[in-house]
Amino acid sequence: MTHFFSRSSLAAVLSMAFYVFVSFAQPVDASTNLSSDLSSEARLMGFRNMDELRSYFEISELLVTENPIPISRDELRLTGFTISNGTASAIGTTIGSVLGDLGADLGDVSKWISLGSKLWDIVKDNQPIVNVVTQTVSVLPEAQMDWRKMATWKGPVAKSYTLAAKNLYGATVISHTYTVAFHHGGSIGGRGQFLANATIIPTNVNVSWGFKLNSNVKVGEPLNTGTTEQPVPGVDLGLEWSMSSMLKKTQGVDQFYIRGDGTTTHVNLY
Fold first, then answer.
1. pTM (predicted TM-score)
2. What's the structural domain count of the chain?
3. Which of 11, 219, 222, 260 has its CA 20 to 30 A from that of 180?
4. What residues make up the domain containing 255?
């Protein structure tokens, strides 16, 4: 997998190369409802008429797919994602005082703390944010805010998805691949399955000439999807994206609900 780069798609380059060499003598279709300024721009860009311009710049299909090949730990490590897990030995002498502070409150959501950002950019003006792996969120007991001092961590879980947009010619003009990653199953004294280092990472971005892509991550409030005795935090990670060209702006949300037991739910909201 290629990480952290952006380039114009080959299909778009070949398409535009064709238009540059077509005859400019043919006038733009005057029957369109678009402005004369835009018609002039179409001629300058090599489009023979407004139908061709529309077909190139109009997004006609959007699709989000889960990539069938899992991301390996080595590939995830290349992004800078924290791989190391907490261990029981790391708890040391702190476990007694932590359990004393928690008592029966381990399953009380008001006694949890969400560490990290609530909103961050991952793609800005077609460019992946290279230090985005520093932006993560953890849901931990308030009395133990260092996830490395908790036991039974598992993972990381890492699933990759691709948001693709096609124009009316059927060419893919925007492709945004991103990875949802997190550690799960952290416990104290055998209780709970908490979350750590949850994030969404841009792993591949391709945007054709004339289009713009922006995306960010918005974190929701945690809920207890388990029981009071065995709490399992769940939290929304929403990938909010916007795509635009000279003709139209399209936006939506790719929503991921992740849980401390390592399960995820994926919903497209566009």
1. 0.77
2. 1
3. 11
4. 60-269
